[in-house]
Specification:
This protein is mostly helical. The protein has one domain. Helix content is 42%, strand content 0%. The protein contains two helices and no strands. It is globular. The termini are far apart.
Length: 43
C-alpha cells in the first residue's frame, strides 16, 4: 500500500501532492497537469 501512495505520477514521473488525491478520486495515479492533458487530448 505504501508504494501506491508515493505521489509519483505514472505519466511524467514527477512527484506531486495531487497524485494521491487523483488516485482516490479517479483511480488514476497521475498529477493534475497530466490529468488535464489526458482529459483534453485523450489518446
Amino acid at each position: 500500500m505504501k508504494d501506491e501512495l508515493d505521489n509519483i505520477c505514472e505519466e511524467c514521473k514527477k512527484e506531486d501532492e495531487s497524485v494521491s488525491q487523483n488516485l482516490i478520486k479517479h483511480g488514476y495515479k497521475i498529477c493534475d497537469s497530466c490529468y488535464t492533458s489526458k482529459t483534453i487530448f485523450p489518446v
